Every structure is written in C-alpha cells, then in structure tokens.
Amino acid sequence: MTQPLPMPVTLLGYGAATLTTLSFFPQAIKTVRSGDTRGISLRMYLLFTLGITAWGIYGLLTGDGPLIVANALTLVPALVVLERKVQSLRRGDDRLW
Amino acid sequence: MTQPLPMPVTLLGYGAATLTTLSFFPQAIKTVRSGDTRGISLRMYLLFTLGITAWGIYGLLTGDGPLIVANALTLVPALVVLERKVQSLRRGDDRLW
C-alpha cells in the first residue's frame, strides 16, 4: 500500500494484534493452575507453535517489528501449554486419543 | 516495503499463515468429539474470537485478501470451541473457576 492508513484503521490493527496475542495467556495460566490438559489438542499446539515461530522468522526477514514482538510474546504461553500437554501425556495423566 | 520479497520469504509467510490457521481445526474437532471443555479457557476464546474478528475487519478496510481469508477461516473453529465451552458452562458440566 502506498498511502498511509487512516489512524482508526491502524488502531484497529494494533487492537486486533493485542487481543490475539493476549488471548493465549489466560489459557496458559488455566492449564498451569489446573494441570488439566485432557481437553487440549496436542496437534493444535504443535501446529500453532510451529506457525508462530515461522511468523516470527518471517517478521525478522522482512524487518517487521510488530510481527516479531507479537509472535515472540504469543510463543511463550503457547509453549507453556504445549509443555504441560506433553508432560501429562508422558505421565499417563492424559491420552493422545 | 517497496521491493518485492524474495520468493522463499513469501512462501514462509504463507506457510506460517497456513499453520496458524489450520491449528484451530484439530482443537475444534477434539472439543466437539470429547465434549470436554474443562481445560479450555473461556477468556482465551473470548479474546481470540474478538481479536480475529478485528483482524478480519482490518483486512477488509485495508483490502488485504490473505488477511481476510485466514481470519474468516480461523473464526469457524474458534467459534465452535467457544460455543461448546459456553454450552458446557450453561449445563453445569464445566465451571468458570
């Protein structure tokens, strides 16, 4: 795009980025507190952590600061949930199917 | 950005978008099949569905096709999980805290 975006549109974009980034934190907190990973999809968190890692690398290669920050932040709770899911499966507290 | 991106970088971006978009489908399938929403964070799915709705509107306003498609697709499984969570809470099969 060649024209700068109107301010409300830019703010909407930042608001959207903030909401999707923040959303994974309550899930990570809930999963750590309850230890209940049975309803959590392993495949979701595998695909998602791979996806946001790819987004972060894409941000680094294109020099897109907000993309790097948003994905680096989201990676933290996503990895926490993934780690808890894997630990539950290993301990036998949860099953793959 | 003024220069077109090198092809591998563009492909990485599309790969990242595909992974994060697809990732919510196995979660929706698992949640519908098992009906177990106790480990699912209501706050995550409220913030997330609001966030991707905002991303989709941002895509419409900026004329960004991939952003519209990716967020419209992600909205489907996210709404499915949110609806199941709300239904479980209403039936008393799940608790908020």
Quick structural summary:
2 copies of one chain form a homodimer. By secondary structure, chain A is mainly α.
- Judging from the principal axes of the Cα atoms, what is the shape of chain A? elongated
Largest sheet of chain A: none
Q: Helix and strand succession of chain A? A: HHH
What is the oligomer described by this structure?
A: homodimer
Q: Tally the helices of chain A: what do you get?
A: 3
Strand count of chain A: 0
Fraction of helical residues of chain A: over 70%
Largest interface: A-B, 43 and 44 residues
- Poorly predicted runs of 5 or more residues of chain A: none
Mean pLDDT of chain A: 94
Relative strand content of chain A? under 5%
The radius of gyration of chain A is 16 Å
Structural class of chain A: mainly alpha
How far is the first residue's CA from the last residue's CA of chain A? 46 Å
Describe this protein with a few key phrases:
mainly alpha; elongated; 97 residues; 3 helices; homodimer
Description:
The structure is a homodimer of 97-residue chains. Chain A contains three helices and no strands. With 97 residues, chain A is mainly alpha-helical. In chain A, α1 (7-34) runs parallel beside α3 (65-91) and α2 runs antiparallel to α3. Chain A has a domain at 38-86. The termini of chain A are far apart. At the A-B interface, α1 and α2 of A face α1 and α2 of B.
